[in-house]
Design brief:
Blueprint (H helix, E strand, L loop, with lengths): L8 H25 L12 H4 L10 E10 L7 E12 L4 E12 L4 E15 L5 E14 L32 E13 L3 E8 L18 E8 L1 E2 L12 E11 L2 E12 L2 E14 L5 E13 L3 E10 L10 E10 L24
Antiparallel strand pairs: 1-2, 1-15, 2-3, 3-4, 4-5, 5-6, 6-7, 7-8, 8-10, 9-10, 10-11, 11-12, 12-13, 13-14, 14-15
């Protein structure tokens, strides 16, 4: 038997108001626990991965990254990154700038960060280079109020166009904070290993006048470059296999990316797996996220790559996977360096040119 209770309209409005406020603040809570945005093509965003990569090319390097995660879910995660860096040969240093924009959720949660990067390089032998890097960032985090709908707005207009007088709305604001990162990298022509520490100052990015500190993130990465031809005859281009890995830990969150690039100029192919099969998540399932396929082309000055993440977690294919595009452009500009020094190349997975 179903019993219908007579509830007055004011009571219904009050319940609806509390319900919408609960959903909104719960959404903010979930976002406050979210981890940093990440790129599947992590070596296509080297300054984002580790500030020690700053100035590891001989040319002016411009990089643009775009990531659309779970597009089938309403208002998924979209991330943009733009960077520039250059090697100051006469000072054993590198300088760079980077801007990142991350947007998520129906409320248009938007995080923008602007960074200045510096690295210093030490040649410890004729074959090895150690690079240390710093990242000084300033971030702004906000919500698009035009996308929010409060309970008292439904009393007059279901479209939400009537301004809200709810005092809870006044508690929302914009979060501004500094963010510092550091990293180190050791490499030679065929091997590289490094680490980075993000959010050293553990900034507070709360939007509701409370505490929401970003936990420190540790990143460890490395790889090797394996030429697939060692014959007696010289070739202008040889196929190269580049296995590598990236391990991240932030708070209680862990992630491992492992895979390899196959480079045969101008074609770039890559296969990756993201997850830690020996671990289990809070639901008791195997900790796994995605399998990644990468296809790209590399020319003298331009490199373009596309990747697609096949979701293998419990979320499944309903998410729509993840699309990612990376564009690199190298521009040789004479900076009037009178002292010519031996060039040091970083053996990134895209390093596939004639030695």
């Amino acid at each position: 038997m179903i019993v219908f209770t007579n509830i007055s309209k004011p009571a219904c409005k009050s319940v609806a108001k509390r319900f919408f406020l609960f959903l909104f603040f719960y959404f903010l809570y979930l976002l406050s626990l979210a981890q940093d945005p990440e790129f599947s093509q992590y070596y296509a965003a080297p300054l984002y991965l580790n500030p020690a990569f700053t100035g590891t090319t001989t040319d002016h390097r411009f990089i643009a990254n775009y990531r659309n995660q779970w597009p089938n879910i309403a208002r998924g995660y979209v991330t943009y990154a733009f960077s520039y860096d250059y090697n100051l040969h006469n000072y054993n240093s590198g300088v760079g700038f980077m801007a990142t924009v991350d947007q998520a959720g129906t409320a248009g949660m938007k995080s923008s960060q602007f960074n200045f990067l510096y690295s210093y390089k030490l040649n410890i032998s004729n074959k090895w280079v150690i690079s240390s890097g710093l990242n000084f960032g300033y971030a702004v985090r906000r919500v698009d109020f035009n996308r929010l709908l409060f309970g008292d707005q439904l009393q007059f207009d279901a479209s939400g166009k009537v301004p809200s007088d709810d005092p809870a709305a006044s508690n929302l604001g914009t979060s501004n904070y500094f963010d510092f990162k550091a990293g180190a990298l050791a490499y030679n022509k065929n091997f590289w290993v490094g680490f980075a520490v993000n959010h050293i100052n553990e900034p507070n990015r709360s939007l509701i006048n409370s505490e929401s500190y970003v936990p420190i993130k540790l990143t460890i990465h490395g790889g090797v470059r394996i030429p697939l031809y060692r014959g007696a005859f010289k070739r202008a281009t040889i196929p190269v296999l580049s296995p590598s890995f990236v391990y991240k830990r932030q708070g209680q969150f862990e992630q491992l990316d492992i895979g390899a690039y196959l480079l045969y100029n101008p074609i770039i192919l890559g296969v990756w797996y993201r997850g830690i099969p020996i671990n289990k998540n809070v639901q008791g399932n195997i900790s796994q996220d995605a399998a990644v396929l990468i296809l790209g082309f590399q020319f003298e000055k331009i490199e373009l790559t596309y990747s697609y993440d096949f979701t293998v977690s419990s979320l499944g294919p309903i998410s729509g996977g993840t699309h990612e595009i990376a564009l690199k452009y190298r521009l040789a500009i004479n900076m009037q360096n009178k002292t010519k020094r031996p060039e040091r190349f970083i053996p990134c997975p895209t390093f596939n040119r004639k030695e």
